[in-house]
Amino acid sequence: MIPQTLGALAGFLALVAPGIVFELRRERRRGRHQETAFREASRVALGSLVFTLVSVLLMTAVQAAGARLFVSPVGWLTRGEAYAREHLTLIVVSVAVELAVAGALATAFEAFFARRRGEAATVRQGSAWAQALRTDRPGGSRAWAHAQLENGTSFYGYVRSYTPTGPLADRELVLEGEALTCENDAGTKVIGEDWRRVVIPGSKITFLRVTYLDAVTGEPLTPPPG
């Protein structure tokens, strides 16, 4: 069923948000598994329902204690649109608080279960190429790479561009620079003066080594820790 009004859409998003928060944090520690869309959606819906119900119960308990901070479910159900028009601000505040509480519960429960399972480390969803060539590269530096191909030929050069994700067979690495070098059985030759760039298919690379050089001086730099 597709929400037909802006309010219904906002309510739907608020309902599923806690489950999405739980799943996103869970994938950071465990990685993403191949599964059917139905199973994934069912898990998100179940998690959202649980966290939403718990947050609503907590807010009801606060309301029952005498703090009239949130909307009255009984008044809303009995009077309908008339109650909603009279207490629109209170409804908005209540929904926002419920969403914040449910999201906090999802975060706390995920952290608790992760600690119980010993899943302290974060699993990165990106590729090692993106990690080495972009994330770990210090500011003000350029990545200098050594790509060895399966036939034994090696290329050395500054990284111009690359395909960050996807199957290795579909990736490409582009090296450039005046010091662009080719090394094979015939010897080592600087080809940067004659050839501007070399495009290397990812499927042909047996390994890729990367260092970081200052963009101005060309001196080696140390990547930031972490």
Mean pLDDT, nearest integer?
A: 80
Percent range for helical residues? 40-55%
SSE order, one letter for each helix or strand: HHHHHHEEEEEEE
Classification by helices and strands: alpha+beta
Please give the domain count: 2
Low-confidence stretches: none
What is the gyration radius calculated from CA atoms?
27 Å
What is the number of strand segments? 7
Q: Estimate the strand proportion.
A: 15-25%
* End-to-end CA span: 44 Å
Rough outline: elongated
Q: Biggest β-sheet, characterized?
A: 7 strands, antiparallel
Individual helix count: 6
Write up this protein.
It is a single chain. This protein is α+β, with helices and mostly antiparallel strands. The chain has 2 domains: 6-117, no CATH class; 128-221, SH3 type barrels (Roll), CATH 2.30.30. 46% of the residues lie in helices and 23% in strands. A hairpin with a 4-residue loop joins strand 1 (141-149) and strand 2 (154-162).
Describe this structure in a few short sentences.
The chain is of the alpha+beta class and 226 residues long. The chain is 46% helix and 23% strand. The protein has helices at 6-30, 37-64, 73-79, 81-86, 88-117, 128-135, and strands at residues 141-149, 154-162, 172-184, 187-190, 197-201, 205-214, 220-221.
Q: What topology emerges from the helices and strands here?
A:
Blueprint: H1 6-30, H2 37-64, H3 73-79, H4 81-86, H5 88-117, H6 128-135, E1 141-149, E2 154-162, E3 172-184, E4 187-190, E5 197-201, E6 205-214, E7 220-221
Antiparallel strand pairs: 1-2, 1-6, 2-3, 3-4, 3-5, 6-7
